[in-house]
Amino acid sequence: MGRVSRRAFAVAALSAFTMIPQASAAPGRKGGAPQPEMRGVWIASVANRDWPSKPGLTASQQRAELLTHLDTAVRNRLNTVFFQVRPTADALWPSPYEPWSQYLTGTQGKNPGWDPLGTAVKEAHARGLHLHAWFNPYRIAAHADPARLAASHPARQNPDWVVTYGGKLFYNPGLPEVRAFVEDAMLDAVAKYPVDGVHFDDYFYPYPVAGQSFDDDAAYDEHGGGFPDRAAWRRDNIDRLVRETADRIKEVRPRARFGISPFGVWRNAATDPLGSDTRAGVETYDDLHADTRKWVREGWIDYIVPQLYWNIGFAAADYAKLVPWWAGVARGSSTQLYVGEALYKAGAPAQPAAWQETGELSRHLTLAGDYPQVRGHVYFAAKDVAADRIGAMARVVADHYGKPAPPPR
């Protein structure tokens, strides 16, 4: 198969026990002390992807759906949920910084009558699950009309913070005041709730849109001095967000872990000899200005979950080539490596033949088990764990999750 389009890769990236038993070694490990194994699932709230199933449900209906997702995780012997609590510069908790999410009531800023994040943390812990609060730092809206935002929205109050790109609204990562604000908004939840982790997905600078440029000229003119080019300045902006967030988490909630789930290709080997043997249409270093390899090697984050959303043998981005590449990046670092898995592709009619096979995902875990740096897997996403349309998740559980396992700490 030839080069994969940028759009195809962007779509792929779109689409992030009451008793805890003694830890068991992850499958396939060769000797050594048993290590806690990540068995995670993302619960996406953006566009009502996983939860709530639609906006405007009653508080009791929303709560019931959320608890069902937690129970489903336990039933599949998972141990961690990654709960999206700030999908579009909004909040799934009572925040003094940003409005209530529209995905709860259908109206941004409208109080849903309960506290989803507070409930999720309490109920996850009651089931022996860890909960990582999942934030999207810079996305404001999936449309380009600021007037559709709540009147109190910070993006309306600070229009100079906003960049319109690809028909969507984004905060400008190049403005120090934006970076400080989004950190404050996210850390509010971390300070208020005993979350076990803080989680970012793959969106930093937006995915490229053909024929359009991200207009940060004024910010670059003001803050870009001393950098060899705009790309280096943009990468530094994202590096600062990562480092500062890590430092602030340690101050506010020292035991909480900080992790990121980037798009699965840092750079292609044709671009950089340190890159992977891939021909991806998107490279995070160049296109999203996210130097994901550096974050691992420098130990800025506690864990990384590259979204390896491709099948074994996929020519442009082969799972069997990307796992050893990421294992090599993590080797010798303090950053734990988990693998993001595309459960949503299993049985989807538009996907290649490999994804029509029930055992594809199970083979992923078998392959990854040969690399001791791989400390577990996270599945996208909760709706697909529940539906399990061709039994791919059940096969993973049968083949690899014979007993419950405690979450990594």
Automatic annotation (TrEMBL):
Signal peptide location: 1-25
Keyword Magnesium attached: no
A Pfam family hit: GHL10
Designated name of the protein: Glycosyl hydrolase-like 10 domain-containing protein
Domain Glycosyl hydrolase-like stretches: 37-350
InterPro entries linked to this entry: Divisome_Glycosyl_Hydrolase, GH, GHL10
Source species, domain of life: Bacteria
